[in-house]
Amino acid sequence: MSSPSTVSLLDQSNLRDWLNEQSKKLGFDGLRITDTHLGDASERLKEWLAEGKHGHMEYMKRHAQLRSDPTLLVPGTVRVICVTMNYLSPTIDFDGEWQRLADPTQAVVSMYARGRDYHKVMRNRLQEFAQIIESKIGTFGYRVFTDSAPLMEVELARKAGLGWRGKHTLLLNRESGSTFFLGEILVDVPLPIDSEEESHCGTCQSCIEVCPTQAITAPYQLDARRCISYLTIENPDVIPIEFRRAIGNRVYGCDDCQLICPWNKFARRTDLPDFAERHGIGQASLLQLWSWTEAEFEKRHEGSAIRRIGYSRWRRNLAVAQGNALADPALTEGDKAPLREALLGALPMADTLVAEHIQWALGSEL
Description:
Blueprint: H1 12-25, E1 30-34, H2 41-50, H3 58-62, H4 64-67, H5 70-73, E2 79-86, H6 94-101, E3 108-109, H7 118-137, E4 142-145, H8 153-160, E5 164-165, E6 171-172, E7 180-187, H9 206-210, E8 216-218, E9 221-222, H10 228-234, H11 241-247, E10 250-252, H12 256-259, H13 286-290, H14 294-300, H15 310-326, H16 333-346, H17 352-363
Parallel strand pairs: 3-10
Antiparallel strand pairs: 1-2, 2-7, 4-7, 5-6, 8-9
Helix pairs in contact: 15-16, 15-17, 16-17
């Protein structure tokens, strides 16, 4: 990386206003700038990894050193342009989400995953943003990222002033709550940096209290091994039996700590069509999703973050949810019979991972 000499000739204030304006045009909702120093966040990460709270996410341990210093990831970096992009669709209603969670026959998919894969959306727009900046100031060194490299994104965004860490460890801000994606452009341009945001969680502990698996072990401390998002997405193995009941009908991720958070009552909705719900995934029943063949799964989740977990994990998660429905005393035999038949019909052809969860689901009535 080498800084362009033209940058020193630009009025920094005007440049900053221009950056904000251009970011809005590209669909970003917030932009702040920080340096590369992560302070004690690196030590906290090391402690978290040493305690094994990352579970099967070995990539976090493998690249821990890179995460601790962005200049190791991209030599020459002096600033990080951090952006947010809201993903909450206007059609999502939090009361409706709680109602779906209370209906064991329905499948609940995390709100962020109902539209297009944010990795692709964010990366493409960040790249376009960097090229626009280059047309303004001349050639400079940069790389764009969005949840795609060993980078402490939340900590950088917090330092940049895009929000504060909630007690659930997600980033929060006044405008969007926690319903936004993060992206970064690492640059070799010494832009002026922004100040941090004060925390506004106060004494509220709603996110800690609502967590179905008590994954938030203390304020600002998350044990990923207990988190339903980890268990249903990142975890490639069997879901530990002690957490299966708590998963309920959540088949991809979990939003409980976001649904309960008072700041999300004020979350701005996005008008980006990329994050609009696809294929009725937000209203589907367990039986509807279970009926998909592998080819249908691949086709309907094309361009979706869900496709990344693969068909086997998808079926594993659905089997657990159906087992929880079969064990629900509020459901009638008429409700349960189709679930039982669907599981029994799939068992002979199921792979080892899925079969274990089907057997558990069928045995859960006993």
